[in-house]
Amino acid sequence: MSKLKSFHSKGLIEVGCDEAGRGCLSGPVVAASVILPKNFSNSMLNDSKKLSEKQRLILEPLIREKSISCEVGIVMEDEIDKINILNASFLAMHRSLRKHTVLFNHILVDGNRFTSFEKIMHTCIVGGDAKFMSIAAASVIAKNFRDRWMQNIHKKFPEYAWDKNKGYPTKAHREAIFKHGATKYHRKSFNLLGDLTQFNLFS
């Protein structure tokens, strides 16, 4: 039996929201929003960061099949650079929410901040992806979608190893940026190189 809760408020139609890629140096920020039936339960489902890739891939078709509605929203690198990553995360969530054809009246958001969406009530929940089924489901969908995106653009720029780091600021990723420069997929408003002392500038 899962330790995650099925809903926050019993009498409302809830949609869970979460994003993936907020801390990355390259690629889009991706948000998903999922409406689950009140009786939905899955013992494996959890915060996507606590799941293996294999578990996430097993869960995705189950979530898509059993959900009442499941949508994804994307904000690309150039937009992130214009409006900053926090606002881009909110925008990605709004874009996913706007795609639903099923009406909902309560939005559950992972985190502590959100901008109101069409005057619909929302509740921010820190660590919500480890507390509520719908947010955990959204975290899995967003993570898988973004991972596939990064694996695809890795084919164009294999030197950055996006198939492995998915755009996150690993040492190897930053070394590749230092050596090869930034691509069109990098977020120019981010500190792409980090602390330059990690590189041997005289080699």
Task: Describe the protein's architecture and organization.
The chain is 35% helix and 15% strand. It is an alpha/beta fold and 203 residues long. It has a 5-stranded mixed β-sheet with strand order 3-2-1-4-5. A hairpin with an 8-residue loop joins strand 1 (14-20) and strand 2 (29-35). 41% of the residues are buried.
Domain unit count: 1
Shape: globular
- Measured between the Cα atoms of the first and last residue, the distance is 55 Å
The residue ranges in which pLDDT falls below 50 over 5 or more consecutive positions are none
Strand-pairing-aware structural class:
alpha/beta
CATH architecture classification: 2-Layer Sandwich
> How many strand segments?
5
Biggest sheet statistics: 5 strands, mixed
Fold blueprint:
Elements: E1 14-20, E2 29-35, H1 53-66, E3 69-75, H2 77-83, H3 85-98, E4 106-110, E5 122-125, H4 133-154, H5 162-165, H6 171-180
Parallel strand pairs: 1-4, 4-5
Antiparallel strand pairs: 1-2, 2-3
Helix pairs in contact: 1-4, 2-3
Descriptive keywords:
globular; 5 strands; five-stranded mixed beta sheet; alpha/beta; 35% helix; Nucleotidyltransferase, domain 5; 203 residues
